[in-house]
Request: fold
Amino acid sequence: MRKKHNEGRKDREISLLVSIILVFFILGIIVFSVSGKITKEMEASATQNLNESLNLIECTIEAMLNKEAEYQGMMAQGIAAMADPEEYVRSYEKSETMVRIALIRVGETEGISSTGEVFTEEEMDFSAGGTIDGLPVSQSYLNYMGTWAYCIKCPVIKDDQEIATLYVEYIYDTLDKSLPDGFYNNKAMLYIMDAETERFVLKPQGMGERSAGHLNLTDYYRANDIQEDNLREQVEACLKDHQNIMFYHDIRNKNSLNYMWSVNDGTLYLIGYVPIEAIQQEGRTVNQNIFIVVAVMLIAFLLCCILYYFNQRQQNKIRKEREEEREISNRRLAEALQAAQIASNSKTMFLSNMSHDIRTPMNAVLGFTTLLAKDAENPDKVREYTKKIMASGQHLLSLINDILDVSKIESGKVVLNVEEFTLNDLVSSVDAIIRPMAEAREQKFLVEVTGIKHECLLGDETRVNQVLINLLSNAVKYTQTGGNIWLRIIGLKQRSNQYERIRIEVQDDGYGMTKEYLETIFDAFTRAENSTTNKVQGTGLGMAITKNIIELMGGTIDVFSEVNQGSLFRVELEFRIPEGQADRLFWAEKGISRILVADADVEVCENIQTLMKDVGVEVDAVHSMEEVLSLLHKYESMKDSCHVILLRGNIADIGCVEVVRQIRQEAGETIPILLMAEHDESGIEDILQTENTGILWRPFFASAFKDKIREMQTGMTAAEESEAKEGSNLEGLHFLAAEDNEINAEILREILSLENAGCEIVENGQLAVERFKNSEEGEFDAILMDVQMPVMNGYDATKAIRALERRDAREIPIIAMTANAFAEDEKDALNAGMNVHLAKPIDIELLRQVIRQYTRKEQ
Amino acid sequence: MGFLRKGSAKKLGIACIVGMIGFTMAACGGKGQSDNNLIIVEKNDEKIVSLFSPMEKTEANVENVARSAADKTILMAEEKLGVSVGYVTYTAEDYQDKSYDDVALDRARNDMDDIYLLNPDTISALAKEGKLKDLSGLDCAKNLRDVVKAANIVDGKLVAIPQEVVAYGLFINKDMFDQYDLELPETPEEFLECCRVFKENGIETPVGANRWWLETFVLAQAYADLYNGGNTEAEIAALNSGEAKYSDYMRPGFEFLQEMIDKGYIDAEKAYVSEAIEGEGPDFLAQKTPIVMAYWGAANTETAYGKTDFEMLVIGFPSSRGQMPVMPMTGFGVGSDAAHGEDALAVMDVILSDEALQVYAETNRVISPSKNVEVECIPALKPLNDRIQENVYVLGANASMDVEQWGNICLIVRDLLNGATVDECMAKFDQLQEEALKK
Reply:
């Protein structure tokens, strides 16, 4: 439609342009015609004008000649009356016009002249027969003055009888004075030519170019390149017939009008030319003026066109801009609509999923609770049902946590909790969660750690853990049964000594993802769906959360995937290395300063060397059974030894058990031997039968190694040890709990009673304050405080308690137990004076730990 | 925003409209009529100075450099003095016509013009008749070279000043000389030998001549020793007193010419009726004739030999002292009774000033009469110029000689061309000397 509209407009513009060109063309033709007409008319007028000018000159010359002849006739009459005419001639003083006179008596051939010389008619040539006013005139000749002259002879008649002939010599220079000072603005060239001799006898002053001085007609032809035979013949014919002729011919590259004008019946000719440009000066001026007018009109028209053009352009631009704006607006609206629809769909889908995902475990909880009520007498069933209820509840909690995470991240409320952690703990906790999941799907879960220089780092372990579990649980979910999952933790080159750069790769050889899905993988509320995966449970929020957490930690995440080939998530993070000495004390206390590491994989040995170097333990690395044995011999000979032997079954092809056995035999009973094994390695349990021998799960971490050594030496794990130290339950403790929700209060009471702890519950903060106020010192070991309560909330109650003037008011542990689980809630709780913040639902183990921690502190 | 802002476009439009109105009004407007008389009266108080000079027959669309150079100086005078110089020219149609010199004499004697461009003989004749003004008072006269002054002082008056020092030489076709392995001739004998070789090789007339300039051969041979022997004044004194005879000086040159004519090296009949350059020029340019004689300026101007298809050199005439330039000295003279005598003298002072002569010399590439003006000559003129710079030359006219040289020798050479014998020619010289002695 728009294209059509544009084409229509283009056609109209072309039509307009063609019309303008046509108008100009017609205008041009008219101007050209008018100009041509004017030129022709002016040319005709100029030619006529030239005719008239030449006629005028002709008439002037002829009048002068006639006057001369007339005067000469009168002079002859006067001489006839004189007694001594010769005396008159002798005494004649030359005038400007008549420069010499002479008289020859009839019958004589010689006479006298006014110059005193003998005069004969032979000096003159009257043969051409030219006359002036009836008197014979001679051909032109150079006279005694060195100038061109002519002679008129006149009979002297006395008493009707011719007694003598009077010869008078005239010079042409005289004519010059009576001729105009030039015509056509001195551009016209004029010569007076003697027709008989064709000599140029006078070039009047001001007539034409000064430097031109032609000798005769032939010279004139040659100098002006008038060589065309037919033209020459025509001119000759005219001269012969005493006719006038005008013709066009270039003179010195200028188009000129040449003329040959008969004077005195052809005895003299006016010869010359006028450049056309001089003739047509008026015409040219008129034409110039016409062109000026046309040019002005043209400029005005063009100006109008330009203004119109710019106006149109401006209009078009505005229109275009508006159209563009409208288009953009429409597009944005459409996009917004689409986005809204997508969002709506996503959220609808999300809600639908949530509804399904929440209802499913909820159904399990309610269903099994019903069954539990029915089979309450059957302890096995009760245990089974509670186990399932617990699992469903955990799943429900994870869903809620995810939703909360998204909400927090989207509202920018996530705050990283930076603490010291070890990669060992991280990998162990992840391994503990993922490996069972993978094993349930018969998948192989492989963990590799390389190039790590520091395993103790500063960071939000929980969030890193969350990221890894998200990625790995996805990998497990989206990998078919029997597939492979890899977790690689790779130490990258440090940018700074203070930071450890780590790349975490999670790879699987599962279903993979389409290119289209990869583009939206990190968007919230999206889940890869196909016939294979749509059965997979999930909120569709995991990847969005993951990406946001990584970015929050200043890291990056990239994903590479191909359908049916698998996926690779690559996360790069940087963790600060904690200051202070590594855990050298433990090793020193245990007397371990040298260990022997035997692994066929050189890289693994190097990793161990790097990590152990950090804690001040020397590592002797060997890569084969023979080398191990050789080194042990060497220790023996040097009366030195290593303090622990770490080995892998790959140093020999005889199986792990046999390897351990042989080394044990060689090393003796005292040196602890640890077999580094994969979790899924089979047949290694037998090793544990051997004294002072254990298994260290790969990958190697110094901290795991440390725990293992401690375990082997004490026979307990670190957790067991810690628990043993701290006591196992809350027995004997008495709590004040502020909880407005009866169910929650009941749960709390029951949980604490299970721990053999007493609990007094009040319904709001106010009551809690009063109860504490009225209690005896030491009556309560801690206060468990809900936050959102009627009458007085937990924060105010805490502040009030802390403000009480009792010794224990500032010391009694107040533990926030609230469904307000955000970081700012925790911050508010601490600000209010609470000691610690625990989010609901209550994790009994966590509660136990916290209470123990704070009550112990109290003690 | 756009190519033009809306405001700018408006301003531009208004400016254009105002401009157009202004332009149109200026184009169509005129001065208001304040007088009822429509005739525009032009003041005509222009001073006119008449200059008589020859005008060469012109070819279509060919510029005469010498004329252009002179025109430039005339324009300088007109601009400086506010005068108008009118040209009066004469050129003889053929040998039967009155010569330019004859006409110049007639015109000067009848005071027809104010300034005349004169040949040496007419300068001498008119000066002796008192028809030329003394120019020694002009500023421009102070800068003249001595040789110029010497040639133009008659009875103690400086009667003419040239715009160029005219030097005559032999114009030779070097290519043709090379073709026949000929050296450039130094002496008359060598010259005759060259002519013989040319003749034998089919060159019909080795020397192109006209009725004016053959006398240069005679002058070179006659006065080579007189002007270059270190005894010039004494020798001239001897000639003026009759102790020495002009005919004795002239005879070798005439005999040389006679031999040239006899051997067909010169076409005497043609030369007798030929005008300068017109007669011999076309054959020389067409390389039919290897040698012609002409004046310095002919080598520079296209109307003469300024543009040849061959390598041209200008050398001196053969003489006992080697190649000899002949310098006759033309000049501008002012009529003693000129109608506009004072204006004419003022014009002379401008056109012969160092400034004007510099322009003239640069345009025409000639030797300037002013000792203050030097220009480089064209390569073809170098051999001739070298001799002049060495002060080796023969004067074509000398006012201190009682017998006028340039005109008389020319006329007597014409007699030789017309069939007179060498002895008859010598007799004429003797007669002229006798007439001079009688004065």
